[in-house]
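Researcher: Sequence recovery benchmark, item below. Answer with residues only.
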């Protein structure tokens, strides 16, 4: 099988556990592109969180961001933009406030939060060109349009909320953990799997000629949907069980191993 497109998660896959891009992975991306393969990202991050890495992609390469809710390209406009329904966004924000966890909401390129915490403070580092605002009017924000909501809190609290809420929320909402202290919400018309399908439509690459690589629950459906689904060695058990191959972990240049093996 000749694979023509690689879609890789960023945190825990493209980057190591320190949030660093290693020379081996950088070289692997170049190797893929030199072999005529499209390399792109499939991430929960917005495009503003990828600024340091976009130069590695072609200007016209569609990038899956915000868990598939926004697809854009480094040198062009948004190609896909899917917001939560206002009623759903408002419900999630209000329930998060009542549970006492931090709420982070992405809306029109800005980030809104109900309170500062060490985890949210990292946004100022990762998303240097994003305006971090306090969320004071949930109803107005929901009407403005919310692409993604993150609840941040202690892992045991986030785990309990995920178990309870995923059966209780309005239809049309997808919910998953992206880290042990992050619970993410976005439209069920989005998702990385749907994002990969849309990228295939845009690029003309058949789905069976794609490779998807990831480590988190938000990568699971993409791993199952791609022509070849690969889990990182540091991935959740569910991903490792669903994958066609388990690569070395992200501290052992697992993504580079994927390119060496299949490209």
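Model:
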């Amino acid at each position: 099988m000749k694979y023509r497109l690689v879609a890789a998660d960023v945190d825990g896959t493209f980057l190591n556990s320190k949030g660093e891009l290693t020379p081996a992975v950088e070289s692997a991306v170049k190797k893929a592109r030199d072999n005529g393969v499209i390399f792109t990202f499939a991430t929960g991050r917005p495009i503003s969180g990828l600024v340091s890495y976009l130069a590695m992609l072609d200007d016209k390469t569609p990038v899956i961001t915000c868990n598939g809710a926004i697809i854009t390209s480094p040198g062009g406009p948004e190609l896909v933009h899917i917001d939560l329904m206002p009623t759903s966004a408002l419900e999630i924000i209000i329930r998060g406030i009542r549970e006492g966890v931090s709420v982070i909401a992405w809306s029109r390129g800005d980030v809104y939060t109900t309170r500062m915490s060490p985890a949210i403070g990292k946004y100022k580092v990762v998303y240097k060109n994003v305006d971090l605002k306090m969320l004071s009017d949930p109803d107005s924000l929901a009407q403005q349009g919310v692409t993604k909501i993150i609840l941040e809190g202690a892992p045991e609290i986030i785990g309990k909320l995920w178990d309870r809420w995923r059966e209780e929320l309005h239809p049309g909402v997808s919910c998953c953990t992206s880290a042990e202290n992050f619970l993410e919400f976005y439209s069920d018309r989005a998702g990385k799997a749907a994002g990969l399908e849309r990228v295939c439509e845009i690029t003309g690459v058949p789905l069976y000629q794609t490779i998807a690589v990831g480590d988190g629950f938000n990568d699971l459906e993409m791993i199952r949907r791609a022509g070849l689904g690969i889990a990182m060695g540091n991935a959740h058990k569910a991903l490792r069980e669903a994958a066609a191959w388990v690569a070395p972990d992200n501290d052992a240049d697992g993504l580079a191993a994927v390119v060496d093996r299949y490209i």
